[in-house]
Amino acid sequence: MTDEKDTKDPLDDLIERFLDAPRNTPEQVEESRRNREALRGTIRQWAEMKEDGTIATDISQTLLDGTSAHGSSSSAPGDADYEALRSLHKLTKPGDDSTIYKRLVEGVWTVVDDLDQQI
Amino acid sequence: MSDLEPKRKLEHDEKALDSSKGRAFDASTRNVEPAQVKAAENANPHRHSGSAGGDQEHSLEIVGFGATVSRKTQLTEKDLSKVPIELETPKSFYATESADKKHLTLKGGVEEVVVTPQAILERIGSLPLDKQAQIVGAGIMTFKQELDHQEYRIFVGAVAGFGDAAVSLTEGVENLGKSVCALAEFSRELATNDPAALDKAAQAKEAAGKLFVGCVGLFTIADSYLGDVGATGDYAKPFRDIAWLGHKIDERWQAMSPEEKTRVVTKAATENLAGLAVGLGTAKLAKSMHVVEALEHLGKDASQLGGAARAKSGKFIESMLDELLPQPMGVTPDGHLMPIPRTPKDSFVEVLKPKAPNENIMLSKADDIGDHSPRLSDGVKPLRDTEKEITAALEKFPPSELFAQELKQVADSLTLRQTQYLAERGIDIVPVRRMNDILPETPEQMLGAFDRIHKKIFIAEEVWSLGQWRKNTDLMFELRHEFGHALNALTTADGEYLSNESLFVKAFKEDFDKLSQSEIADMKLFTTQRTTKEQIRDEIFADMYAHSTGITTSNPGSLKMKRAFPACLRLMKGTPQND
What we know:
Chain A is of the alpha+beta class. Chain A has four helices and five strands.
């Protein structure tokens, strides 16, 4: 048994552990589906001001068709988007970080307090 | 040119006919046979065709400078060079006697041959293509190799029929030589991915604009030369480079949608031509298949206009080329070759996106969104709707071959089982230039995406960071992150995401309960809202899966999540708690 576990591919092992565990009921699966539907057209955007003043961002996005996208980037003082980012995330000093949510409203990414807030 | 056609029937002509005493019909006559009309017209003693000489095309002629110009015989600056020769008649010098016969007045003039640079270009442009090729080819060689410029001037003067005595030939021929050389060098550098092309792009565009409005269709000349003389000719190499550039411009044009072509033409016309746009037929340009040929033709039409209008037309051509020239390549600090963006945001999708002031508006201002893109706000479907549209977008904005190879190597670094997993579910890994080339609604910072519907993992070559498009340097981690999304979404038979299964929810809760209030507040990762948690779990599942493979990332946000979710990471790794 030990040998079998040692030779098992980590991916197979991971899938097996998930599928062997108690699974969600059909009602829970349906609720998950509804929640995923509600996530469509949303962005979670995290930003942090680094020691040198550079702002690092990390973005997770669910598109209208359910595609999930992920990205990260930096913006240094003087860059075109720097002041907008600093202001949007209310970053005043190194170490400050914040997360904002956006929802696609009539084609415009609109900052919302939380993603449950329906437009 | 139809807008410029004279009206055949003028109102006052009709009134004049009404008042004519010689009319053949009285007021009560309404219905007559055609033969009667003809007979009546012939009986009119004042009958006139409307043309001075019987041919309306010659009804208005301007005579002077040794030439006669009419609608049929349009002349431009090149034709004026003949003037001095024709004016050298005995009448140029004459004497008149005063009334008292005591004084004799002698009148005469001194003529100097003045050939403007435009006239030189036009004269060359009117030569047969093989002669144009000789002049252009010799110009490239002369200016590239710094050969004797005077010899070249004499050559141009002889071939174009100016003679070698024209003092003012110097400036024009120098301009011609520099222009053709600039364009040839730029073409060669682009074709060989030489970063020097970036510095010469502006010069090359200006050169093309000047040559086109001078009727010198460099791309047509190059094609003609290669077609007639082939690879063995003396100038085959520079002409091959120029022809290559012309084909690339046409390719880029043909890859554009009609909507995009219209935008490019309209933008260039609005910025440069104003009222001239209609006369030059820019609307027709947007519908042409071969833009290079169309621009050369537009240049020829513009050569008939005055100097200022010609200059505007040259600028219009420059603007068009600005959009259509292939992207110069550069070497990144880590030695990779990649396209250098001409402008920070140059894709069609980005132009249509909302402008920055509206991009991050607060909910309270959602109704006041100003002049954002109508395309996005009017409920028009985004660029990518179907498999076909994805393919079209990828063809339109292809990533570099180098990046495609690099991503293939990264994909090859997946384990055999991971590769099998992708194959079993029909998931493709697709390199893209920028994520919003295919997903218009994504921010430009996106590195990758997992498209559940079309079963594709997209990885971007470039990402907007530190004020410019930069190479995506996180490929190894990003591919595994997106693999994590695919694994999360496509493993169960009932469609449930693994991140929603009790095993993961339990690990998630364990990590969440240990986070301090300041961490929760700082990261704002965890709220009581269920949709937020849903998204966060999906994201953490993908990220922890990538971390569990042992690949590292430089993304500080991802590293922060790794520290915040140790239980989730352990679950993905399949390791006990004390590991």
